[in-house]
Amino acid sequence: MHHAQIDRLAYQASPIHALDARVKLVCALIFSIFVISLPATSVSILACYAIWPFAVLVIAGVPISFVLKHILIVSPFILVLALSSLLYDKAVVTVAFGPWRWETTGGVCRCFSIFGKFIITMAALVGLVATTRFSDLLAAMAKLGVPHLLVVQLGFLYRYIFMLIDRGSHVLRARAGRKLRNLGLADEVKTTAAIVGSIFIGSIDLAGRVNMAMQGRGFDGRFHRLTEMRITGADFLFAAILTLYLVALQFLRRVFY
Fold it and tell me: Which long-range contacts (CB under 8 A, 24 or more apart) does 82-89 make?
């Protein structure tokens, strides 16, 4: 797994890719807040919120399958939380979806609401990462006043995690080439524990060498950019469209639901 594989979509050219990272970051956060604050019974409005992130993904040329695959990776954790709501909320509520209305329990409604909000917000966040270089995101966070220490830590985490993945893949490949038979459960656990320990010890040593190399090249704790970040008319247009979209959905929810 290499940086080019993870960031290949962020280096494409599209109207969404060309937007300022600060605008995209703020818009993604505001959109996520609006989605999360939506009542559990507003199923129709929640479905309307799904239009925005997937429309942005289509305009940016990001494959929907790529987004859904990454959503599925973390979905089991949210799925457990969503299904648990079925057990403790038995109150009867009325749910509206367009002209149709029906009664169900609050647990069922909350379950679909949690999972729906998760998919929509994750699509927005994955779309943000897939259309923005991580270095630009770090610069945007620094410009928006995020603490410098947090920005530096995120930058190091982004770089070191690839080293951990690379070392892990090398160790697993070496083990597969030397494994001649299936081991018992106890031996497999011991071998796995040894592999994990080897990976982390090796990654710590590698991180130390990388840190010394960065200091030797004059790293002063800041990530410098070759170009200055500028907000253009396209950024204002994007923010204005999102604002109108959110206002329209809030109006529909208050008037019709």
Answer: 82/110, 82/111, 82/112, 82/114, 82/115, 82/118, 83/111, 85/110, 85/111, 85/114, 86/111
Cβ(30)–Cβ(250) below 8 Å: no
Return the exposure string of 92-108: e unless at least 16 CB atoms fall within 10 Å of the residue's CB, then b.
ebebeeeeeeeeeebbb
Where do runs of H (alpha helix) occur along 15-147? 21-36, 43-49, 51-60, 64-88, 106-131, 134-143
CB 109, CB 119: distance < 8 Å: no
CB atoms within 10 A of CB 121: 21
Residues comprising the chain, all counted: 257
The DSSP output letter for 9 is: G
102 contacts 94 by C-beta, under 8 angstroms: yes
pTM assigned to the model: 0.78
Task: Give the closest residue to 256 by CA, choosing from 96, 140, 65, 22.
Answer: 96
How confident is the model over 228-254, as a mean pLDDT?
90
Mind listing the pLDDT tens digit for each residue in 159-172? Answer: 777 777 777 777 77
- What ranges do the domains of the chain cover? 3-141+227-256, 147-216
Arithmetic mean of pLDDT, 20-29: 93
- Residue 110 pairs in a beta bridge with none
**Which token pair is 16?**
């969404």
